[in-house]
Design brief:
Number of domains: 2
Helix content: 25-40%
CATH superfamily of the largest domain: Isopropylmalate Dehydrogenase
Bound molecules: nicotinamide-adenine-dinucleotide
Strand order of the largest sheet: 2-1-3-12-11-4-5-10-8-9
Strand content: 15-25%
CATH topology of the largest domain: Isopropylmalate Dehydrogenase
Distance between the termini: 29 Å
Structural class: alpha/beta
Number of strands: 14
Largest sheet: 10 strands, mixed
Length: 362
């Protein structure tokens, strides 16, 4: 097993270091190799995703990614900005399925802005299609309008499109994931207005017939946005397109209170994947040793489960995280009165200790 380690920028280096320490104490045989990505790669090689980094990622079984970006790169031309590295990795590795679990840990129930009874026990998996939709559809651009409300005016346009194989493969991913959970899939669309999403809905329905044991329902995206804050626990697996998934996965993430707790995985058809926390490089707290490493540690657990076929090791990490939360240890982002504030390194130490001392209870 080979893991490409791409810490990136800002807090990326601090949180990935803790995830690596956790992986090391699991006594698994894997090789890791690190490379620069994002702003750090731009500084060293003039590009956010150098050929050597891409080659390493392609050859690895999985990529453990920190975060990229810093406001100081905002003036660079778009193709050289740190965030382009993520798009380049998604494209070159064919990472079409993004998994974003939103789990509310019992001990953090008060961190949410929703009432505890609405989110206690929450466990949603949002599956977002990652390579199609209006984000990548051609043509796109600016031109002079020849029709519409203001002919002759300057206008901008994008193209929303999905092909049958793109929808079929993400639908299969969702149904298969649901089989390992509560066997319910909600497909989110805008079929009442958009041709692309009527097509999406028809295909998801067809694919659903191959999974008679999984319950399928369909929901318009506007209703899904409301239901996520009104009654989030009614969802199990949510599958949707790239743009709706982008927005809904952030909304679902916030249900749980802290972005510092949320892992993510992006997989291709051979289960090769890129694993990263859902948050960014947090330049405001970088270098201070206060970032929450748990999202990255939980991303490493997802990596063990999905790409490296080590589900028991993944369970051990997840149990260790629950254990340290039960001990009352909190980084600043999830701290509340009555709990113990710790830094990035101490939180990593506590997870390592929970694994190695076998003190895990739950
Ligand atoms: P951000 O997620 O980096 O930070 C948002 C807020 O959450 C900040 O206050 C930050 O301190 C806090 N935060 C984030 N992660 C945390 C953690 N692990 N522990 C404690 N607090 C945490 O988003 P932003 O500030 O909008 O963006 C900063 C940079 O990150 C930008 O350059 C942006 O483009 C980039 N970005 C990168 C990714 C990625 O690498 N996948 C994703 C989002 C944003």
């Amino acid at each position: 097993m080979k893991i490409a380690v791409l810490p990136g920028d800002g807090i990326g280096t601090e949180i990935v270091a803790e995830a690596l320490r956790v992986l090391e104490v699991l006594d698994l045989s894997f090789e890791t190799e690190s490379a620069l990505v994002g702003g750090a790669a731009y500084e060293a090689h003039g590009h956010p995703l150098p050929e050597s980094t891409l080659k390493l990622a392609k050859e690895a079984d999985a990529v453990l990614f920190g975060a990229v970006g810093d406001w100081k790169y905002d003036k660079l031309e778009r193709s050289l900005r740190p965030e382009q590295a993520i798009l380049g990795l998604r494209k070159n590795l064919g990472l079409f399925a993004n998994f974003r679990p939103a789990i509310c840990y019992e001990q953090l129930v008060d961190a949410s802005s929703l009432k505890p009874e609405l989110i206690a026990g929450l466990d949603i998996l949002i599956i977002r299609e990652l390579t199609g939709d209006i984000y990548f559809g051609q043509p796109r651009g600016r031109r002079t309008a020849v029709d519409g409300h203001f002919p002759g005016a300057e206008e901008a346009f994008d193209t929303m499109r999905y092909s049958r194989p793109e929808v079929e493969r993400i639908a299969h991913v969702a149904f298969q994931a649901a089989r390992k959970r509560s066997k319910r899939v909600t497909s989110v669309d805008k079929a009442n207005v958009l041709e692309t999403f009527q097509f999406w809905k028809d295909i998801v329905t067809e694919v659903g017939k191959e999974y008679p044991d999984v319950e399928l329902d369909h929901m318009y995206v506007d209703n899904a946005a409301m239901q996520l804050v009104k009654a989030p626990k009614k969802f199990d697996v949510v599958v949707t397109g790239n743009m709706f998934g982008d927005i809904l996965s952030d909304e679902a993430a916030m249900l749980t209170g802290s972005i510092g707790m949320l892992p993510s995985a992006s997989l291709n058809s051979s289960n090769q994947g890129l694993y990263e926390p859902s948050h960014g490089s947090a330049p405001d707290i970088a270098g201070k040793g206060v970032a929450n490493p748990l999202a990255t540690i939980l991303s490493a657990a997802m990596m063990l489960r999905f790409s490296l076929n080590q589900p028991e090791a993944a369970d051990r990490i997840e149990s260790a995280v629950k254990h340290v939360l039960a001990q009352g240890l909190r980084t600043a982002d999830i701290w509340s009165a009555g709990t113990t504030k710790v830094g990035t390194r101490e939180m990593g130490d506590a997870v390592v200790a929970a694994i190695t001392k076998k003190t895990i209870t739950g």
